[in-house]
């Protein structure tokens, strides 16, 4: 999200007064008009890095790494790792068509 702009600098006075009736002195996010917004983590690359990490976790698990070992390597809880592994297994089944 970019820097905020002061409403009195960018909005007509009548519109500013109308908005103040609903939200006076608080921050307000106004989304872009375009429906083609980037999804979470797509622009920063975070989503891709997490997907890569999850692929690594699943591959290590399939090679025999225990949940306890994966907890120490990835600094995630056992529950989080089990969710990742379960989701990766489902994705693998979908991809292979089984």
From TrEMBL:
Alphabetized InterPro entries for the sequence: c-mor_Regulatory_Protein (IPR052411), Homeodomain-like_sf (IPR009057), Mor_transcription_activator (IPR014875), YraL-like (IPR049739)
Domain Mor transcription activator: 14-91
Pfam families, per database record: Mor (PF08765)
Protein name in UniProt: Mor transcription activator family protein
């Amino acid at each position: 999200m970019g820097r905020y702009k002061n409403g009195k600098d960018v909005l007509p006075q009548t519109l500013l007064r109308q908005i103040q009736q609903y939200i006076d002195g608080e921050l307000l996010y106004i989304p872009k008009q375009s429906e083609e917004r980037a999804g979470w983590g797509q622009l920063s690359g975070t989503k891709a890095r997490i997907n890569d990490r999850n692929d690594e976790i699943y591959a290590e698990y399939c090679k025999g790494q225990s949940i306890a070992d994966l907890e120490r390597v990835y600094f995630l809880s056992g529950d989080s790792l089990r969710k990742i592994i379960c989701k990766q297994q489902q994705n693998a089944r979908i991809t292979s068509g089984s």
